Amino acid sequence: MRRHVAILTTLVALAAGAAALGWFGFSSRGAIDPDDPAQGALGREIYAAHCASCHGANLEGQPDWRERRPDGRLPAPPHDASGHTWHHADQQLFELTKKGLSGVVPGYQSDMPAFEGTLTDEQIAAVLAFIKSTWPPDIRARQDARSRTQP
């Protein structure tokens, strides 16, 4: 009987711990930490290999990124402070990167591919950490506040 109580107590404690981690915003994808030099360095490498061809080596995006092309699609936006990436919460940026724009907004036509199956969740988090590390403090503070209040 005592053994069953001990096992049940352990299971309840594990479940409570897992729930607490979820409640405080942690997930299996890992944290996006722009102040972590190792995560930022990894993100820079992955960005150069998978993102820079569209979003620019210096995060500058494609020319005229706010104007639709003849096919109705928008050019790749910048990820520096001049763009709108920082207008989105971390979870939104993560989902957009993992699933692609059309995977998040069904029916929306975009050249943004889904990186699910190409990059791991940790690699996506590293890319986002790198991008965020380039933003000035005021932009980072605004985006961090948005990430705390939006899913």
Automatic annotation (TrEMBL):
This is Cytochrome c. Residues 59-85 are annotated as: Disordered. It comes from Propylenella binzhouense. Pfam families: Cytochrom_C. Residues 63-72 have a biased composition (Basic and acidic residues). Residues 38-135 form the Cytochrome c domain. SUPFAM superfamilies: Cytochrome c. Keywords: Electron transport, Heme, Iron, Metal-binding, Respiratory chain, Transport. One of its GO terms (molecular function) is electron transfer activity. Its cofactor is heme c.
